[in-house]
Description:
This protein has 21 helices and 26 strands. It is of the alpha+beta class. Strands 1, 15, 19, 20, 21 and 22 form a six-stranded mixed beta sheet that branches. A four-stranded mixed beta sheet has the order 3-12-11-10, with no helix packed on it. The longest helix is centred in the last third of the chain and has 18 residues. The radius of gyration is 24 Å and the shape is globular. The N terminus is likely disordered.
Amino acid sequence: MGGHLNRRDLLKYSGSAALAALAPRLALADVKTGVPLHGLSAFGELKYPKDFTHFDYTNPDAPKGGTFCFSPPTWYFNQSTQTFNTLNGFSGRGDAPPRMELCFDSLMTSAQDEPDAIYGLVAESVTVSDDKRTFTFKLRPEARFHDGSPLTAHDAAFSYETLKAKGHPDLSLILTELQEIVAEDDHTLRLTFSGKHSDRAILDIAAAIPILSKAWYATRDFDASTLEAPLGSGAYRVGIVRVGQTIELERVTDYWAKDLPVMRGSNNFDRIRIEFFRDRQPDFEAFKKGDIYWRSESVAKTWATEYNFPAIAQKRVVKREFSSEKRPTMQGWAFNERRAQFRDQRVREAVALCFDFEWTQKNLFYGVYERSQSLFEKSEFRAEGKPSAEELAIMEPLRDKLPPEIFGDVVMQPTSDGSGRDRNNLRRAIELITAAGYTRTNGKFVDTNGQTLNLELLIQAEVFTRSSTPFINNLNAIGINATLRLVDPAQYQIRLQDFDFDMTGFGISLSPTSTQESLDTLFGSKSAAVSGSRNFAGIADPTVDALIQKISGATTRAELVTIMRVLDRLLRIRRDWIPNWYSANHLIAYWDMFGFKEPKPDYGFPVETLWWFDEAKARAIGKI
């Protein structure tokens, strides 16, 4: 599966804060107005006071030094972990290397132990207007780009305007309702929304948008796919570049924000080196040899059977599980409903019946994975059983627009007898496709025009053939002309961007506090026709839109949870996606030469910015 995080998700990664998040609290709409604030929270008081010195999950005394070499398990926007041909990580063109965002600062940044809070980075404060539509940021005068030039409100305004007009859809779409962007002076930026935005839109926007240099882009085209490293202001700058193979990010020793509370104890490695592999097996072999230092394992068979190499036995490599984040996980196969054969819900349900998770779990997954039921798996947003009274209160006004079955038990993914060819499931699939108007001719379904029912599953790595082939075989067994198509990373990116696929797999970790804007990019009508958006299914349903819009008005977390559960019920009935599987924990192996603080934060796992190089450990295992 692909992995994707938006910048806010990527940058936000204690028990007491997590528990507090479950209680009803004041919404952003009730935040103090007319006074400078050091942070914003969606549902209540900030965990960290104005005079805090560092986030609890960082080690302010962590040593600086060493190299962290890995193949990132997550990426976002136009990034790829298999190759790269541009260093512009914020447009829709080309394939960029992951972690380019570490070279840029934003107005604010997220706390990784709070689900819904941001704190000032470039902005030392934000003032909210009485009508809650305007946010005025006071920028720190010490903020600098890597060439020493000042970072001003004019740069920030340029960045917001440019990314709204030309940025990757994941950025431009969340800026849709930003009506006015004004640099009042060098250190004052005013952002005004249209009034159609959600109260919490500012949380994504203030922490998501990288600040670009207006002067640098005065002589360059933002849209260009280029290997010239853009001028940044963040904790790292681009160092060694071997196109398509390796990139090193070098720590900026005189980084202007290194002593700010939001940065203290992070960004500890002198170099972050990212290696690129077209396939996972060479990646694993490089790790075993010690050329890569840290690995997130995503192949169950490898985790269960192949971590028996000498460095493991010698205890030079540590293999362990870390708890997953308390955030919704969405992983599955998306139907491209822009194509006529997938517009009938019965066809989509029939295809889902052909995936035998129980057989796959027993024969291929070694019990490592669990079945996904929801697009908000591992979170309180996952619906269970029949609707609660609170859910019904949301649903009743929409009754004439909702499918009747939403008022019953929530849709669950089909279970099988574990044989790999469950006859009851396959028989039901045939009935559904027949009811959708297809007939079987010479063993294949055809429509009234004689066109064969085709399905091509697009994949980007050889490893997916193992788990996908039995699924494809079942589809062919009932009469669907199903095939696997493995393409190279560049072609994969282009085909996703152009929606040139029948079905594809995708995985994403969502924000623990969902916003209208972030959900619109995945499920909203406004993103269905936007090239490069993550609305892979092409969902354009006014009722889905109405529920997403309701999320913008949630005034307590409990209300947010209720609306999200109703949305989950509807999406599961629609079957635009087939949820497939997930792991309850991170499966991690690393060469034992790092330090890190435990427990890890609840809302993220950014090892490259939180861990540090331990010289004594490295010497003990012969890595120095």
